[in-house]
UniProtKB/TrEMBL annotation:
Transmembrane annotation, as ranges: none
Basic and acidic residues biased stretches: 33-87, 95-125
Coiled-coil intervals, chain numbering: 212-256
One of the Pfam families matching this protein, by short name: DUF6474
Record protein name field: DUF6474 family protein
Keywords associated with the record: Coiled coil
Keyword presence, Coiled coil: yes
Native source organism of the sequence: Dietzia aerolata
Taxon lineage: Bacteria, Bacillati, Actinomycetota, Actinomycetes, Mycobacteriales
InterPro entries in the cross-refs: DUF6474
Renumbered residue ranges of the record's region Disordered: 33-125
Length: 287
């Protein structure tokens, strides 16, 4: 009986020990499972936090990209707006410049028209001045002829005087003196070819050139009729020199400014008036 009791006690002890081991194993398994669940939960939490952080960083990166793109778009819009403003300013400036240029061109054309008109009037005045003494001489001589009987010698003397005075006056004298048949040459004598005469001038300068050529023609006639007189020869030589200088002055005045050119023309015209008076005085006629 003692052995049976010992066996039963030993078996109960083994069962208790097995039960304790089983309980310990279950507890450890539960703890391991709990720890695994905790680790898994922690890992999931970490993964979720990391995912959230990555999403947050991605969102921030995307926001920065969007902001940079918005800034770039705003800068581009500002640049285009600035270019448009500059283009408008340039267009306005160009229109203003075109308007000013057009106004300046109109003013220039108007000024040129006025200068042309003044030059034309000056040329007419110079031409009139060139004929003044000739017509005075013709009127004086025609008055002398009124009511007088003209003989052959008188006719020749008056014709010679008319030829010396100016070729332009020949038609007037020929109409009064009958029996003269050279009216055709007289009609063409008044025409002056400045280019053939060697004078390059326009406007008032051309009118002065015509006066110079006519005075030279008058000197030619005076030389033919009274070239044998020493005093007359010296006068003709000195006068030709004066006219030669005036020729050069007329051409030189063509390249000078308008105001200065008018002063030069007025000076030349006055000198031609003096030469004209000297020639008339040499002819014995008071101008």
């Amino acid at each position: 009986m003692g052995k049976l009791t010992t066996y039963r006690d030993k078996r109960a002890e083994l069962k208790a020990h097995a039960k304790a081991l089983k309980s310990t194993a279950m507890t450890e398994a539960k703890l391991a499972a709990k720890e695994a669940r905790a680790k898994a939960k922690e890992a999931h939490r970490v993964d979720l936090a990391e995912a959230k952080e990555r999403a947050k960083l991605a969102g921030k990166t995307e926001d920065r990209k969007l902001k940079r793109e918005e800034k770039r778009i705003r800068r581009e819009e500002k640049r285009l707006e600035k270019q448009e403003k500059l283009a408008k300013k340039a267009s306005k400036r160009d229109r203003k410049a075109e308007k000013a240029l057009s106004k300046q061109e109109r003013a220039t054309l108007k000024r040129e028209a006025k200068l042309h008109s003044k030059d034309r009037k000056a040329a007419e005045k110079i031409e009139a001045a060139g004929r003044k003494h000739e017509y005075q001489l013709a009127e004086m001589e025609l008055k002398k002829l009124e009511g007088t009987k003209i003989g052959k010698e008188d006719m020749q003397r008056w014709l010679g005087l008319a030829k010396i005075a100016t070729p332009v006056l020949l038609p007037m004298v020929y109409k009064l003196v009958s029996g003269v048949q050279s009216t055709d040459s007289a009609a063409t004598a008044g025409a002056v070819d400045l280019k053939a005469a060697g004078i390059n001038a326009t406007g008032p300068g051309a009118a002065l050139g015509v006066r110079i050529v006519r005075l030279e023609q008058t000197l030619d006639q005076l030389e033919k009729t009274r070239g044998g007189e020493r005093e007359v020869t010296d006068f003709i030589a000195s006068t030709r020199t004066r006219l030669k200088d005036l020729r050069a002055a007329v051409e030189a005045a063509e390249t000078t400014p308008t105001a200065q050119r008018r002063e030069v023309h007025a000076s030349i015209s006055g000198e031609l008036d003096r030469i004209n008076k000297d020639i008339f005085a040499r002819l014995g006629v008071k101008a």
